[in-house]
Specification:
With 585 residues, the chain is of the alpha/beta class. Helix content is 33%, strand content 18%.
Amino acid sequence: VNQKDLSHLDISSNGKLELVTDGKKITFEEIVRHFCTTTKYQDCSFAIRLPQLIVSQIKKLFTSFRVAREKYSYKGSYHPIYPIKVNHSKFIIDTIRKAHPNYAFESGTKSEFILLKEVLKDEKHRLIMCNGNKDHEFLEEMKIAIREGYTICLSIESVQELKDTLTILPRKGFQLAFRIKPYVSLHGHWGTSSSRHSKFGLAIGELVEVMNLLKERKATSLLTTLHAHPGSQITSLHDIENYAHFMATVFRLLHENGLTNLRAINFGGGLPIDYDNRLDSLFMKKYADILVKVLAQELPALQPELLTESGRAITALSTIVVVKTIDRYAVFPESAIDEQLKNHFWSKAKTLLHAKSSKEVLANWQQWEDSQLVLDSLQHLHDFEHVTLLLKRKLREEFFQHNDYLEYLNTPAAKSLLKPEYTVQGNFSIFNSICDLVLVSQYFPVIPLNNLHLQPETLVRLFDITCDSDGVVDVYNAPVSEKKLATKDHFQLTFPKELTLGGIPVGKKDELIDSYFVIPLAGAYQDIIEFDHNLLGDLPDVLVTARTDWQITLLTGAESIGDILEDLGYHFPNSNDPYFDNGGK
């Protein structure tokens, strides 16, 4: 916390998690208390909405490109575009509109285009970038929008799409972009969006074909923009530079082939969010510097306008999920029933201690796990499991004391030894609040509200309330450090290289019932691709802003059961619906 993309979070001197915006601080404990006393949601998780963090990201983006353009004396202008698929929420789009008078928007479907027409009906000067498949109905909708005076750039992604466009649309009043496949390899969570095998864009043969078709139809004046998309979350600056060189080269070649009205390059998305604190702290600044530098060097005479479609980088910070905990569970008994029986088991267990290597530690642990237990009674099993806990902790301590532990961290035996011994259940649905965790293994940091000034007692796994075994958060990307830090029960928390643990560090395990965790960086995609798994709908939204004082306002209540069931064809009377009244007291 308090750095990079978690700079809006901090820890007080007494270990409480704080929200920091506009130079002011407030503890999450205070936000929770206000939420519970001003709404009827006493046991409910909720989502905090922070529009000011959208504004700050927009300012940061503009500043990064302004500094780069000044550095390289670059004359081409910069225009950011927000792809609304990232989050269509009204408060998001309204915040972006108010943040800058010329901020552009991108639609990827006809439905999104219709939404943008409505949102921008009084701001038709704003560019609408139209990506995605465009059937005849979509093109007819664009035809109306062109006639009504909207500013539209339509990306061409196939030969047939260009033919349909030139048949249905007029020959003026809008712009065309050629969207191409980026013929470079990029690394990141969605790096497969690049290369010749990309789902999107024109292959080189198709690019030549649409270029010739545009000339044949005498419509080259419509083409203003070269466009591609490298994939979301591109974390390598070197890859971004290669991509920029590729785009600059294709732009120059198209100019040399007579498409001289081409004046802009839309680099698409790719600007990442630092979910796990492993990116360069100046990544956005360096991203802008690379794009401008490459264009200044490769296209000094042309200096095209520069566009980017950053969505995740703009909205991710704006939502924090606050999870109310219901209960805490222990995997192993924490004490023995029969001291004599415990001593009997421990006399066998202690023979497995004092290994000479991490490899031997794991072999000893596996030997214990494979031992055949004779079940004489529940008490017998109870005390055996208690001794297993004691042995597990001792072996875990030994495992990290040997120099060879890094070699074996990814083995099944090590994963078993390092499995947390406690679980916490939160009153929320992972599928509704952070579904990318399940869909694409997206990492989200999870932070307790209190006791952050203490050495963590242990690691825990966080379960949701769905009837699905995938509804668990148990990933912690450990800090990289040569200094060894560990929990009190010997889970190592820092490593000399990037590693992932299977649990969340907590200060006091006995204070986890009726407590809270926060999950930041949930403002991109999670609201849009959510699932109502087990008929669990949206959490209440709380708007938190800081002007002269903190303002904490219930924006929307929890999604009503009636609304969820209506989508399934049922009618549910309001009198039976605990959420129909928007949650106010």
